[in-house]
Specification:
2 copies of one chain form a homodimer. Chain A is an all-alpha fold. Chain A is 77% helix and 0% strand. The first copy, chain A, has helices at 2-22, 25-31, 36-43, 46-64, 76-90, 92-108, 117-129, 139-166, 169-188. The structure holds a DNA duplex. Chains A, B: Keywords: DNA-binding.
DNA sequence: ATCGTTCCCTACCACTTGGTAAGGAGAGAG
DNA sequence: CTCTCTCCTTACCAAGTGGTAGGGAACGAT
């Protein structure tokens, strides 16, 4: 029973790092001192294993990221965004894999895994919708703002390794330090003057 | 001579759509009614072909995205961002592949292709640095702001297909319509009140 | 002791991968 | 006509892919 969890963890790591096609069943199995047939025994096919990893990610996302009993205040959205930022950095592998899933979606469109994000997005939009400063805005504006802020977070979370190579580790640490403050301004800003 | 360009175009499409491991030489070749050995004849190996695609992308990015003779005004950065947004939507395949490259960077770290983005980022940061509203801010804040805005653009550009499936084509069209206006507020906002 | 179940292994398979070797069609040069 | 060079072909290969078949070890239940 515990083997399933170990497999899921290793699969997440490798799928996030190398993508669905870049990671092979054999590699994942070797990482755990198993054979790939152990994975097949537990999950049936590679696709199903990948699906199980996605389900695990979305469950984490749903239980941790959105607090349904969010206090209704002018900064409710900004607060939620701050929490999501911290969580995103903490679960960077989840973020990496979800980003890959976003890119691969054209082919995998009809499959499961994708719509797990929908309630998450809708929840955030709802938070913003109840913000007094956003009462005047239309639906498209609200949703676009949510997505822009989310994009800023995820893109950065996925870029740190590259940025460290491109500049320096210290440079990225500086960015990480002032990121929440700047992110808050992004999240709050945008209402008509 | 013209074959090289055709190969590069097809390779860009498939690499962007399916990733490096997801796209095979054979698929790319069949798309052009050639055999994979034609590609090998022109580019040597798959890695080199991929590298050539990256070089082509970065050249497009350098010549089109940053206008060195940008007018120095309070909105110079926001103007540049607007242009980059339009260009990003126009060259969505380039954006897709650069995003994939960002994700794969851990493995490909030492290789070329990555640092092409550096002058682009630095140029944008420089634009913001000369903005009178940003004179007080420190380097990390400036760069973080640049990266957040860029993240909002790229994440959205890469998400449209998924969003269309998750909601509707009309929903995404609405977002695209109000995106530039909201993006401008993101880019301008963020200075201390 | 024996049966059944869970969990994982070895052995094997068809297929695809990137890449090599060698040769041919076409064109221009002498 | 022939030599050469560019561009691309067919034929082939070793390695790796996901997946099947079947067996064996451990263990609890009867």
């Amino acid at each position: 029973m515990e083997t399933r969890q170990r497999i899921l963890a290793a699969a997440l790591r490798l799928f996030a790092e190398r993508g669905f096609y870049g990671a092979s069943m054999d590699q994942i199995a070797r990482e755990l001192d198993l054979t790939k047939q152990a994975l097949i025994h537990h999950f049936g096919t590679k696709e199903k294993l990948y699906g199980a990893v996605l389900v695990a990610i979305s469950e984490r996302l749903m239980t941790e990221a959105i607090q349904p009993t969010e206090v209704e205040s002018a900064s409710a959205f900004a607060d939620a965004v701050s929490r999501i930022y911290l969580r995103t950095l903490q679960h960077r592998e989840d973020t990496l894999l979800l980003m890959r899933e976003l890119l691969d979606n054209r082919r995998r469109a009809a499959q499961a895994g994708t719509w797990y994000l929908k309630p998450f997005l809708d929840g955030l939009a709802d938070l913003l919708r109840r913000d007094p400063n956003w009462q005047e805005e239309d639906e498209a504006s609200i949703f676009t703002h949510v997505y822009q802020v989310l994009g800023a977070i995820n893109y950065f979370a996925v870029s740190t390794a590259t940025l460290e190579n491109m500049y320096s580790v210290e440079h990225v640490e500086d960015m990480q330090e002032c990121f929440p403050e700047r992110l808050r301004k992004l999240a709050m800003g945008g209402v008509d003057t």
